[in-house]
Amino acid sequence: MPLPETIRVSFGTAITLGLRQARQEVAPTTAYLLWDPGCRGSCSFCPRAGGNAGSDRLSRIAWPEVPWAEVVGRLASRPGPLRRICLQTGWNDGAAATLPLFIAALRPTGLPLSLTLHPAQLPLVGELLAAGLDHLGLGLDAAGPATYQRHKGRPWDADWPALRDALDRHGPRLEIHLIYGLGDTERAFLEVVEAVLARGGLVALFAFTPARGRGSPPPLDAWRRVQAFRHLRLLGALRWEDCRFAADGRLVSFGLAPDRLAAALADGKAFQTSGCPDCNRPFYNERPGGIMYNFPRPLTPAEVRQAVADLHLPE
CB 3.0-4.6 Å disulfide test: which of 63, 212, 217, 221 passes with 312? Predict the structure, then answer.
């Protein structure tokens, strides 16, 4: 099966590669490509769900279609700030045959490769990692049986155990994508974050920020607590058993003295984009001038102070 003549790239990637002319507030540090000839998934939040391959949107981003050969050539010769390639994919029938071809074609660029998969494609993980991927992202998104069925249309009791098995085999090379704001409590959501990190995997956090008014974003204080937990747990600065939760699932304590907590969050990295190395996803969850759920760059000292204050932890 030959590779397509064209491929979609995020608008920021197109600007960075010189394929489109526009100003951008923050340049991507990963080149985001999209191959999806018709996704079989039914994710409630995705404009490309149900085979809607004609949409030029994914998350809040436009993805123009450009010549494949030109993209590969520019990635190989002039990556600029780009330090990684991430191929976004849907749950497509041709994935098993086509994705290894993409990996082989992109490896000569010399940039580390990431790729994203739907949980239904878990059987492909080992083969794709062996083909030359550096990291692989899996879109779990929701964090419990009810929210997973509602937003992914799939059985949690099948996909979550299979994903845990994949983490046990490939943990450090897997990023589990989780979206906070789909209806999971902080405790339920963070239990899944804890389970992923305990198995050696990584977590890429997304805030649910619908582009067309279908639902509301999560409260900022809850989102900041989720970000802080992931970062502190990854650093080994906290233990799950020391955290305390209110009856409604709200995280009320990280089990750290205030001075230790402040020191651990002082560099602001907890509030930057999480995922594969060098992934900053500018404005996947934001609009310019709005709330920065995931900062695509280092925070200023004032931004760090505000983000820590937004945790709203009891004194």
Answer: 221
Look at residues 224, 225, 180, 235 and name the one whose alpha carbon lies nearest to residue 202.
235
Question: What is the DSSP secondary-structure string of the chain?
Answer: -PPPSEEEE-HHHHHHTTSS----SS--SSEEEEE-S------TT-TTGGG-TT--EETTEE--EEEHHHHHHHHHH--TT---EEEEE---TTHHHHHHHHHHHHGGG-S-EEEEE-GGGGGGHHHHHHTT-SEEEEEEE--SHHHHHHHH-S-HHHHHHHHHHHHHHHGGGEEEEEEETSS--HHHHHHHHHHHHHTT-EEEEEE---TTSSS-PPPHHHHHHHHHHHHHHHHT---GGG-EE-TTS-EEE-S--HHHHHHHHTT-GGGB--SSTT---TTSS--TTS--SSBSSPPPHHHHHHHHHTT----
Total-model pTM: 0.96
pLDDT tens digit sequence for 191-229: 999 999 999 999 999 999 986 657 789 999 999 999 999
pLDDT for position 53: 60
Integer angstrom CA distances of residue 309 from 211, 242, 256, 268: 27, 21, 16, 12
Find tokens 């280092």 and name the residue: 298
- In Å, how far are 189, 227, 280 from 308, measured between CA atoms? 20, 11, 20
